[in-house]
């Protein structure tokens, strides 16, 4: 009986070692929560303080090569939210990796970043094309689409829940693209609410 328990414990340890070597498990749930909070605050500021509503400006008051005066402020705000979210993710992931006596930058994390980078860079280039054409109502849904594709790719190298989140983001992006004018709301749900829910779930499932 005692030997059987030892075998089970050994198998569990081997499985854990294999999982650590093939999966990036230093993603922090709190990073997701904070990213969601940043996104919701950003949407609130863009809508309430900068009076930004892409559904009202698209195809009407803007022409290719031009955009509303408040768009520069909104773009700067979005960039600030992105920098804050990335910085927070690195900070929490670094601390989690240290607690697990692992290196944050390793072959698995490199593979994860490469698989995320292709759709993210493509989406970023497309975003600048949309800005140049003043197709502002498509920016939010398209960023959701390509972010969702990046998450789906990343799911092969980290928690399986990341793939589920990616599919939901893709769905929200498609909804926002079809129902023009709802992009900002979909963006708030996708980058805000879903990140908070995902972060809390990951924290209580894997970090407690």
Overview of the molecule:
There is one protein chain. By secondary structure, the chain is mainly alpha-helical. It has one domain. 76% of the residues lie in helices and 0% in strands. It contains 8 helices and no strands. Helix 2 runs antiparallel to helix 8 and helix 6 packs antiparallel against helix 7. The longest helix has 29 residues. It is globular. About 9% of the residues have low confidence. Keywords: Membrane, Transmembrane, Transmembrane helix.
How would you classify the quaternary structure? single chain
Residue-averaged pLDDT? 82
Structural class, by secondary structure, is mainly alpha
* Uncertain regions spanning at least 5 consecutive residues: 10-22, 57-62
Overall number of domains: 1
Q: Tell me the span between the first and last alpha carbons.
A: 30 Å
Q: Note the beta-strand portion.
A: under 5%
> Helical stretch count?
8
Count of beta strands: 0
SSE order = HHHHHHHH
How can the largest sheet be summarized?
A: none
User: What portion of residues is helical?
Assistant: over 70%
Molecular shape: globular
CA gyration radius, whole angstroms = 20 Å
């Amino acid at each position: 009986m005692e030997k059987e328990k030892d075998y089970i414990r050994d198998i569990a340890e081997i499985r854990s070692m294999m999982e650590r070597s093939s999966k990036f498990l230093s993603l922090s749930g709190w990073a997701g929560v904070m990213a969601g909070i940043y996104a919701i605050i950003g949407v609130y500021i863009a809508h309430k303080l900068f009076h930004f509503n892409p559904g009202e400006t698209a195809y009407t008051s803007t022409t290719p090569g031009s955009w509303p005066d408040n768009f520069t402020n909104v773009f700067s705000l979005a960039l600030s939210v992105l920098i804050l979210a990335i910085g927070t993710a690195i900070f929490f992931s670094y601390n989690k990796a240290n607690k697990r006596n692992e290196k944050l930058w390793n072959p698995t994390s490199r593979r994860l970043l490469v698989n995320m980078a292709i759709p993210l860079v493509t989406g970023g280039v497309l975003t600048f094309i949309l800005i140049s054409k003043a197709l502002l109502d498509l920016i939010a849904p398209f960023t959701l689409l390509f972010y969702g594709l990046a998450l789906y790719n990343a799911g092969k190298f980290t928690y399986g829940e990341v793939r589920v989140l990616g599919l939901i983001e893709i769905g929200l992006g498609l909804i926002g693209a079809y129902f023009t004018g709802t992009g900002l709301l979909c963006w708030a749900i996708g980058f805000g609410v879903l990140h908070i829910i995902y972060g809390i779930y990951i924290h209580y499932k894997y970090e407690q």
